[in-house]
Amino acid sequence: MKLIFERSVPGRHLDLLPACDVELVEIPAALKREVAPALPEVSESELSRHYTELNKQVHGVNSGFYPLGSCTMKYNPRIDEEMAALPGFANIHPLAPAHTTLGCQEALETSKKYLCEIFGMDDCTFQPAAGAHGEFTGVLLIKQYHDARGEGQQRTKIIVPDSAHGTNPATANMCGYQVVNIASAPNGCVDLEALKAVLGPDTAGLMLTNPNTVGIFDENILEITRLVHEVGGLCYYDGANLNAVMGVVRPGDMGFDCIHSNLHKTFATPHGGGGPGAGAVGCKAHLAPYLPKSALLDGGEHIQVRSFSGNFGVVLKAMTYVMTLGQEGIPEAAKNAVLNANYLQAKIKGTFEPAFDRICMHEFVLDLSKYKKETGVSALDVAKTLIDHGMHPPTIYFPLIVHEALMLEPTETETRETLDWAAEIYRNLYELGFKDPEYMHNAPHSAYIGRPDDVRATRTPVVRWTKA
Ligand SMILES: *Cc1c(COP(=O)(O)O)cnc(C)c1O
To answer: Which of 85, 158, 351, 424 has the most neighbouring CB atoms within 10 Å?
Structure first.
């Protein structure tokens, strides 16, 4: 495909600007460019084709199956976008006088009420702009709590199981805590003996991803939170991905003191391009006094992790999502997410091996270590070959505790036919690895970009066109 710059022809353009209705003023020379900016010059139809062509190269949930584990790439109903785009919401200024924004305030309060109900918590903030940002905020609540009780100096450690999301240890570290890593038991759950061995008067808290990154709901959850509380620590629930449990069980009832949930995963905001998100942070009453507030609005001394009330549009989408699904629809979505994951896991069985051969929650992990030994075909090779079949690859090489991992999260918005189709392709690729591994080493064969140098692309991305 040609770049828009390569389609450019000097002087070709279309401008339909309204006639100037103000006095012309000469821009001071010091502020003027000396050289015109190198912008592409194309006709309107060329421009339209350019973007349509780009659109065809992108794989999104609207183009096909996208089972990217830990990311919950589900279909987000259009009504959520429509509600967030209502002029009364979208055009409001954050500094508008409070008495003119009563509707927006009510929407925030309503969202808070619904999410607190789903979390099993007493209060909530929408300030954090992402999941990791929510974790940071939540752990700061724990820190302030211990400080207020005069135990801040003594409680220096946060326990993080090795099946946690990678952002958990990073968060604890960012908040100045020493991270104590504990290994999982062979069944993928927290090893209670390992937990007991590290608990003590220096424990500030525990961060737990549940269901964890191998898609397993910890069967000892009540015992885990009891043990942490017994030594005076607090429990943090990473609920970035609440798809398996929302409306079915509540983290607050499991004994957790605070939680974050990614509204851009579970609650209907599309994500993946780094666009606006929200890490809603809920907490029990004993942590509520430390929640961030907008200092600008109430003049008080609070921590503030972002301006105003966070990404308001994302909160509105979450509110609409919860209101449209309702008390029956939310748990139904969760149960279907779990059903779909188990259905796909069962359909792939007998080919790629599950990392943990048991009932999963909303996602499951395949372990290709043995397969790679037998065929030479890696998890990366399988992922790249999947691209040729019109589906997005699963998450690969994560979680780190499974080598050659493929992590699949089909989500509740996929039909049985799609899951059957996907399972069939996985089964075929499994066979192909034995017959024609070379073909898979060289995949994808149909994509514009095959195997970029991922590290270089991330560290030194080339995002600017330069004349050849
Ligand atoms: C995605 C995710 C996060 C991080 O969320 P971001 O919005 O990417 O910062 C944290 N924990 C879990 C379990 C996740 O899946």
So the answer is: 158
Q: Is the pLDDT of residue 302 over 70?
A: yes
**And the tokens for 369?**
């270590």
CA of 83 to the centre of ligand 1 (A): 25
| Tokens found for residue 85 | 């785009």
Compute, in degrees rounded to 10, the torsion defined by CA atoms 390, 394, 395, 400: -140
Q: What is the tens place of the pLDDT at every residue in 331-342?
A: 999 999 999 999
How far apart are the CA of 153 and the centre of ligand 1, in A? 29
Angle separating helix axes 416-435 and 379-387, nearest 10 degrees:
120
Pocket of ligand 1 (CB under 6 A): 70, 130-132, 165, 167, 209, 238, 240-241, 262, 277
CATH topology for the 334-456 domain? Aspartate Aminotransferase, domain 1 (3.90.1150)
Region 351-368: what's the mean pLDDT? 95
Match 């270089």 to its residue by tokens.
456
Q: How far does residue 265's CA lie from ligand 1's centre (Å)?
A: 9
Mean pLDDT within 125-133 = 96
282-294 residue pLDDT tens: 999 999 999 998 6
